[in-house]
Amino acid sequence: MRIIIKPDATEVGTWVANYVIDKIKAAGDNTKRPFVLGLPTGSSPISTYKELVSRHKKGEVSFRNVVTFNMDEYVGLPEDHSESYHSFMFDNLFSSIDIPRENINILNGNASNLDKECEDYEKRIQQYGGVDLFLGGIGPDGHIAFNEPGSSLSSRTRVKTLRYDTIVANSRFFGGDLSKVPTKALTVGVGTVMDAREVLIIITGYNKARALREVVEGGISHMWTVSILQMHPKGIIVCDEASTLELRVETVKYFKDIENDTRF
Ligand code: GLP
Known about the structure:
alpha/beta, seven-stranded parallel sheet, globular, binds 2-amino-2-deoxy-6-O-phosphono-alpha-D-glucopyranose
């Protein structure tokens, strides 16, 4: 696993955006084999999305040959609700770049048959040949997408009931009113994310420090679902200094030394 430590969230966003842009460019413009990118919502990827939009506006990157799959969506929230993940993605990224509408895939939390919606989503990912790069964030309890503690580490896309802590955390987007936060979501599984050829997790802020410690220094556990990243052949964590505060000094120094070593 690579761990990239940057001073703050802005520099994290710049690093991740550069990484994504390099991958999109390397994939070229072969429309028969688009670049397949998995995407998260939340505050963690915002600096990355800002940078991607800015670089697109400067003419440095096109998303015409990119296909996206979002991680999750609330169940029962109208797509045009300001807090739906559909709205989040269009407001923060899709409306400001040149990605064709038909290349955007987001789970439909209002589908009449939610199980079928999840099965179809997995099939669609397969039809594109799998995800090339899955970006993700994590919750303070180390959950990825909506795979909360105790989720199977081989889980697939499915309906999940949200735990109370997540509902409380997300109530900030619903005027602090717990009763307005959806109690269920559709989410890709831990296994779905792990199938991607590369997985890049963005972790910022002191409130994620414990989770980062568990993921890097702890063992693999379904109680910290993102810890499965230890098994991925190409897993990268890009984090800020604040999130490293619970790591051992030795761990931080080790990963910084590796990244700074210019001999390789
Ligand atoms: C939600 C999302 C996750 C996200 C997490 C953390 O639970 N389903 O995908 O990683 O929130 O969000 P934030 O980046 O705002 O801390």
